[in-house]
Amino acid sequence: MRYRLGLRTAWRALSAHKMRTGLTLLGIVVGVGAVVAMVAIGQGTRSEVLRKVENMGTNLLVVSAGQLKLVAGRQQQAGAAAITLTEKDARAIGEEVPSVAAVAPAQNKQLQVRFEDLTTTTTVVGTTPEYQVVRNSHPVAGEFFDDEQDRSSARVAVLGQTAVLNLFGTRDPVGETIRVGNVPFTVIGVMEPKGLDISGKDQDDQIFVPLRTALRRLFNLTYLSTVYVSVRDSREMAQAVPAITEVLRERHRLRPGAADDFTVQSQSAMLEAQAAVSGTFTLLLGSIGGISLLVGGIGILAIMLIAVRERTREIGVRRALGARRKDILLQFLIETSLLSVVGGLGGVAVGVAGALVVSLATGWPMLIPWATALAAVAFSVILGLLFGVYPARRAAALDPIVALRVS
Hints:
Blueprint: H1 2-15, H2 18-55, E1 60-65, E2 68-71, E3 74-77, H3 87-96, E4 100-115, E5 118-127, H4 131-134, E6 139-142, H5 147-151, E7 156-159, H6 161-168, E8 177-180, E9 183-191, E10 206-210, H7 211-219, E11 226-231, H8 237-251, E12 262-266, H9 267-310, H10 312-320, H11 325-362, H12 370-396, H13 400-405
Parallel strand pairs: 5-10, 7-9
Antiparallel strand pairs: 1-11, 1-12, 2-3, 4-5, 4-8, 4-11, 6-9, 7-10, 8-9
Helix pairs in contact: 1-11, 2-9, 2-11, 2-12, 3-8, 9-12, 11-12
């Protein structure tokens, strides 16, 4: 009964100063809302990054020519373009590393592609049929080229969804002839949509052709840029990396201590790196929201100190009528708790709404962190109590005779 009476008294006291109470609540709402919204966006972005890495393929290792370095979150070639990987290297990896299930060598280049009067510039990827398995990417219409078409340097092409849209619109491209540079190709399939990769590149803006056709008829090259490797079991990923490194160092006749002229990256390493970056990003956003919440707590401290000063006579009357110090202390703590709970719940609603608006406006993914939301509300209550204890103790310590003398 005492707590119910305390809640009614607290509500009347807070309602008597609507503007002041509203501004105090605003501080809590902004703080909790900022935490919820920022963590929701951060966790959603992290989830999307992990999905994109996993979408690259199953138990994937990527062997790249030359040394790669990370610049502004993207991989770039260190030094001049490397010409250190060949088809024989790809075959050796598949034959000499027992844990390898499939290998897909690849070379790519930006080229102009034309169909009738329409022209676009897209990435032409020369690869082998194993690409479908290694990169977990399959046609949704028509078919992918086979080993015989690769060996015979057949002029056939499989288009990504963006390339289809740019060249054909809604028209069915299978069976049509396109010109890659000046070389005619027959479209035999359309790949499933893949979306953007972790670097922001459109994976659907590509055209796939047999590797030997690409190297001889389009690129005039004898080397590869990339070898995609699928490992039989995820538990063998850690052993596969040094095994591939040993095979390639031996084939390239690198001396002991000499730097590798290639880079081997594992899917798990990419996942860990991206998860670490996303986790740091989420922590940073959450910290900014936490600072806002702290400012809201300071607002509660200020408002309750003002309330104690204004209600000194009321406190004296209550003490004179028999209220104990702990009753006064409890009353002011109930008021701060009420402010914190209402502000916290309002902040969760504002945070979820804000995250939804940002997600719709920017296209960023969003994952509502309900555990974080509950933690933010609990933290706001604890913060409110901590900042409310001093004013409450100050009110409870007032001498009733002195308080009654205040006009």
